[in-house]
Amino acid sequence: MKQELVPLAGGELNRAAHLRGKASVMRGQMDALVLPVWRGHVPTDAEGALALIAAERFEAAQAYEVFLGLLPGGQPVFARDVSVFAPLVADEEAAPPSPWSTAGVAFQEFEGLIFRDLRAVMTTLTPLEAEMAGTARGLFEWHRSHGFCAACGVKTEMSQAGWQRECPACSASHFPRTDPVVIMLVTHGNSVLLGRNENWPERMYSLLAGFVEPGEPIEAAVRREVYEEAGVRVGKVSYVTSQPWPFPASLMLGCRAEALSTEIIIDPVEIEDARWVRREELARAMVGLHEDIAPARKGAIAQVLMAKWLADDWE
Ligand SMILES: [Zn+2]
């Protein structure tokens, strides 16, 4: 299917990996740009475009910057972690970031820009903008949570313009991790299997999903997760499309699956509820007209898969 239909799955960024070793030279170029990222929030301007700022406005500081790649015009673009900046409204600083928040944060240093959680703006950014923002967010999350060597415990150092960390004690190299997650549209005739997690907004239902385990192929992960969470047996599984989901480090593998059984026995540890939803009901839910099912997050791959099923469009 067309990747550009899936937010965060643009695939247009020229990552120019061969230049990562020369990032300091790229950083010194007159036309170099920087994407500031504050605690996972990314800036947009008054038109809603992702804000890239002239790199010369910031003192180069390797520890805070990663090299994202080259823009179509050839300009080098970096992302910079500005999490130490204090927002103009102090309450925002104290509030724990919520995955559902659309609240904006402003800074004296970035006049006219509003920083929001990437999930709140991913559907309005261009595919290239969303990919840059998602890549930056994923990398910074990794650096934030992987500061010590997994082999010997010593503090590691960023290298390759943010794409590796090196251990000074045991020489181990560490690479940014991405965790595969299967998310599946399980159908039985005219019905789709939806579930809800207790941490989600009220009444929201979505597709079942779960992490792929070591040694496990995608198809087996789909069958195992659906059986574990809902007690439903699944037969045929096919892959549809993917969506990077750097919150903090997932790659969503969107699949279709055909149910062999319909009785639902939920695992209350994993999900709060699961139910079969008829096609007509889902259509109403997706436009917010269902009395007890709120739609899945706009732009998330679950919503993309559901829309494709409703339209019977698997191109
Ligand atoms: Zn080490």
Write structural notes for this entry.
- This protein has 315 residues and is of the alpha+beta class.
- The protein folds into three domains: 3-145, no CATH class; 146-177, no CATH class; 179-311, Nucleoside Triphosphate Pyrophosphohydrolase (Alpha-Beta Complex).
- The chain is 21% helix and 26% strand.
- The protein is built from seven helices and 15 strands.
- It has helices at 23-27, 90-94, 118-121, 127-145, 218-230, 279-286, 301-311; strands at 33-37, 41-44, 53-54, 65-70, 76-81, 114-117, 157-159, 164-166, 173-174, 179-188, 191-196, 208-211, 234-245, 250-259, 273-278.
- Strands 10, 11, 12, 13, 14 and 15 form a six-stranded mixed sheet that branches. Strands 3-1-5-4 form a four-stranded mixed sheet. Strands 7-8-9 form a three-stranded antiparallel sheet, with no helix packed on it.
- A hairpin with a 5-residue loop joins strand 4 (65-70) and strand 5.
- Bound molecules: zinc ion.
Descriptive terms for the model:
315 residues; alpha+beta; Nucleoside Triphosphate Pyrophosphohydrolase; 3 domains; six-stranded mixed β-sheet; four-stranded mixed β-sheet; 26% strand; binds zinc ion
Task: Tell me briefly what this model is.
The chain contains 7 helices and 15 strands. The protein has 315 residues and is an alpha+beta fold.
